[in-house]
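Late entry, evening session. Most of the bench is empty. Finally got around to the prediction I had been postponing all week. Sequence below, unchanged from the version circulated by S.P.
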Amino acid sequence: MPADSAIVFVVDDDVSVRESLESVIKSAGWFAELFASGQEFLARPRVTVPCCLLLDVSLPGLSGLELQWEIAERTEMPIIFITGHGDVPITVQAMKAGALEVLTKPLKRDVLLDAIRSALERSREMQAIRSCYQSLTRREREVMALVVTGLLNKQIGGELGISEITVKKHRGQVMRKMKADSLPELVTIAARLGLQLPGRTEDPPGRLPDR
């Protein structure tokens, strides 16, 4: 597989749906990998190429929403949910938990392809962010982790045992390497990277409320 090739994963327990989606995906020039369950998908090694996931909401065993949560715990992957019911509460929950789209069967080919293109573009953006983060030195990562919590340069210096001037220098390098034009933008980038941010105590996304 070429290094820059994109993969579209499909998780659906209906073999006919999987094969139909595979045909559409391949016709657009992407690679497709099919899975009958969430457990099968989670067992697959992580990929380093742009990718996205077409995910059926109603899966046996691990549900689509639960799989969404499991994925979010490990990495950021654009998810397009597929439902045959147009269930509004589930749609709202999936979108709040970060789903890119929720499409209702029967799927319209053009709508599906547009959604996949958007998802793969988001995946490419995430890869670029990770690449930028990898370019940071250990000290720059330490400074970034404290900057996004809202600490001032003087406070960061106290935490790390370095001067305020040195903090300012590292902070500038972080902003440049991460291509962030403002602190809010850097905070957004940190959240996408999965860095621990203050005040993030919300319920796990994708979890259904107790009934």
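Two things to note before I forget:
The CA atoms of residues 14 and 36 lie 7 Å apart.
The domain at 7-131 is CATH 3.40.50.2300 (Rossmann fold).
Will write this up properly tomorrow.
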